[in-house]
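Appendix B, record 7
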Amino acid sequence: MNKFLNINFGSITDNGKVKEFNTDAVSEFKILNGHVFVVCDGHDGVEGHGALASKLIAESIKKYFYNRSYKDMSKALTNAITYANFTLFEQTRKNEKYRGIGSTLAIVIYRDGKLYYAYAGDSRIYVFKNNQLQPLTRDHVDDAAKGAEAEVKILLGKSKDIKFGVCKNPLAAAENDIYLVCTDGLTDQLTEVEITEVLADADKSPEHKCQNLIEMAKEKGGTDCVSVQVLDFSQVHELPNKKAKVNFKPILFGLIGLVALAAVGYGGYKAFEAIKGKKSEKQVVNEIKGVESDVPLNIEKNRAPKKEVLADNKPKVEKTVKQTPQKAVKNKKTDSKTNKDKKKTVAGNVYYKHKVKYGENLYRIAIRYNTTQKKLININGKKATNLIAGSFIKIPVKAIHTVKKGESFSTISDKYNVKIKIICTATKIAENAPLKEGQTLIIPL
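Structure tokens (predicted):
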């Protein structure tokens, strides 16, 4: 079994408090068995257009990996940057108004348990490991002592041939490692001590940390655009090296058993009758056929399971058997129990089964379904604190509504006393989207 890490991340860019336009660009995308994270800081030319430079570099990196194979990741990383540099350089040659534009770059690739990185200019990459913040890059500037006033010596797009920093050997990502990818809009405003305090907060999600760092940079002046990506490696899970092989021995023995049962005939019938005296016919048939019990195995003895409604894309509705009323005297205890069950459903004992997406965090999920992280943790336990892509967690909701003919958002909103915007956010549809008969809507609490 190979051990791989689950990666949670945040990626945010902001134009700060002074600049009218954001000349930074961030990008994150999946590749085969991996994920790419890119941060760029565009520099203006004779007529501005720094935003074009950063966005063109980020898009070119993505285009390279989408259109080519890459067995050697270190070589692919170098080639991708070379390609992006040439693309921007050609753009500056085609149009005079783009003359002089350029862009920094900081790129991290996590693939097959290894981490590759490269950089150009003064955008940086850090690793927070064992409560220490360590820089992995070195600014390409004329004089580091000048700080924010230092002139950047290496920018992509400035010339046809480009030199840039690239890791000689990939790093082995470890559980609890945190990587920070950022532009100088952050590092010119905050000290490494201030950055460390934010990254060390285990109660904050990567997205929260990105937002906090940006807000702190803006509070200290915010004179430049600031872009931040935080990558948090956690929760080791195992992946099989090979596909499981089919074991044909049980199948062979099963066929032999069937032949034996057919030969026994009458004797088997007598055996059935003997068992039947001790157990119900349904239990015996289940034992012979191997039918699974309807009662979950983890339910404690003499304890009835709670009724829940779970849904993925469509709700799984519990079937209700309509019983014919009898003239017998009503059982007050039974009626009381039925009423209690109804109250549980009204109180929110309905759940939506949410499939965790790659890079998703508990904060985003809680916001989407109009609930709190604490409530999700109470319901799902450890599964909520250590999200794994592809797994499912339960979300408490008021209802899972199937749209009927003639219904509108207004009528559904009034029915459940939930705002239209909240319903649309949870279901991930636009507020002005037309409703179709049979469509499923998630109604948050």
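Remarks on this record: Residues 73-94 form the longest helix (22 residues). The chain has 14 helices and 15 strands.
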